[in-house]
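Q: How do we represent a protein-ligand complex in a form that can be generated token by token?
A: Start from the inputs.
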Amino acid sequence: MKRSLIALLSLAGLVAALPATAQFRKAEDAIEYRQSAFTLISNHFGRVAAMAQGKVPFDAKLAAENAAIVNTLASLPFSAFGEGTDKGKATRAKAEIWQEMPKFRAAADKMIGEVAKLDSAAKTGNLEQIKSAVGAVGQSCKACHDNFRAERK
Ligand code: ASC
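Then emit the structure tokens for the protein with ascorbic acid bound:
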């Protein structure tokens, strides 16, 4: 029992020490992972944005729940843009991501930061603050898409 626990903990340590990309067996898996994460982010951000835009009635509890979900998810896709994951499955990720990785990383960090602010704003329940934070998050999504996401074919 004790020995197997030690073995498990050392295995966990080993896994944690591997580079982020090693979480994926193949490029296809990384692409699928990041696309899935973006789908969830878009869905849950969309629910808050719809309230901010007056498309659906404002519900402070729902806004806070969804903003918290986006905050949890925001960093996940960016663990799945490792070297060699530019192809392997249909993807709109542009080559510029890997050619200009620091710029891409900065754009990702901007989005993650704005999402954290949205989470804080949503926790206050103040619609005006939420509207402003939703606008900033939307801008950060768009900035990255403009530079790093190809048009739909
Ligand atoms: C969304 C969504 C995006 C961004 C983008 C903002 O709700 O799915 O991709 O906002 O449209 O410009």
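Residues 2-79+91-148 form a domain with the Four Helix Bundle (Hemerythrin (Met), subunit A) fold (CATH 1.20.120.10). Residues 42, 45-46, 49, 138, 141-142 surround ascorbic acid (CB under 6 Å).
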